[in-house]
Amino acid sequence: MLDQEIEASGGLTEAALTTVRVKVESPDFEEALRRIAQTGSAELSSISGNLAAMRHSAQAYGDTLVAGGRKLENATDPALQAELISRLTSATDAMVTKTQRLENQLAQSTAEIERLRAELERVSSESRTDPLTGLPNRKALQVYLDAQAARSLADRKPLTVMFCDIDHFKNFNDTWGHRLGDEVLRLVAHSLERQSTGLGFAARYGGEEFVVVLPGRDLEAASDIGEQFRDFVASRTLKVRRSSHAIGQVTMSLGIAQMRRDDTLEDLLERADAALYLAKQTGRNRVCTEIDLQDGKCARSA
């Protein structure tokens, strides 16, 4: 296994890679939701119980004031009057203490519920994020693609999908170990995220495969963007920092398809995947579109 730190030349340093590192271990989403739900239910029950107790105390306090007021109104003995006033004062003091205690308990419950809300948001975010690269995962991609497909059909605007696969990724793992393989994945993820900002949505699809969704871009525009992605990643060169040993160039093959009005998302993804396969079969490090499937060769290559 490679235990040296890795850096990428061309401006993408280890510090830049660090910005996309996230915890590899993430909590089980369903278990986290169950725990949050249980804690939230307990807090709500506590609030309900406290409010019920407060209503009971308020009713008792009100009854005490009414009864004491009547007795005080009819009392003529100064000693009895003083005793009644003392009882009413004690009842008021007790009510103030209970009210303050309830306010503190409600404040604690409010804080706990806010903490649970933040934890739920964090867990939900983790469920949509690939833990290795920090990119949205396949689940998040599906949600985004569903929404963009509906918008594309409604607005009659193009929508393209780009499959990106790291060339010879297995060689990196076999030669240098999985630590370097992980760094290659992070490098490509960071590159795609950086290059797609303002253009589309990049996600890790699985393994060494990524997907970029490009709303409002037709096949020709997406092909140009794909060339920019391919060229940017190919300009990165990994090397071992301590020895300055060059590991090699990282290249990608890309396949692009544009949504048709009668498409299902499965149809769209299948055509993009077929274009990717063609890019692999015809030499790698190139961009193929679904149009290239007709004659079996990519119009554009490195």
UniProtKB/TrEMBL annotation:
Q: Which GO biological process entries does UniProt record here?
A: cell adhesion involved in single-species biofilm formation; negative regulation of bacterial-type flagellum-dependent cell motility
The entry's protein name is diguanylate cyclase
| Source organism (scientific name) | Hankyongella ginsenosidimutans
Which residue spans adopt a coiled-coil conformation according to this UniProt entry?
A: 99-126
Reaction(s) catalysed (UniProt annotation): 2 GTP = 3',3'-c-di-GMP + 2 diphosphate
Cellular component, GO annotation = plasma membrane
Under Enzyme Commission nomenclature, its number is 2.7.7.65
Q: Which UniProt keywords apply?
A: Coiled coil
Give the Pfam families listed for this entry. GGDEF
Locate the GGDEF domain: which residues? 157-292
One GO MF term? diguanylate cyclase activity
Under the heading InterPro entries, the entry gives: Diguanylate_Cyclase, GGDEF_dom, Nucleotide_cyclase, Rev_trsase/Diguanyl_cyclase
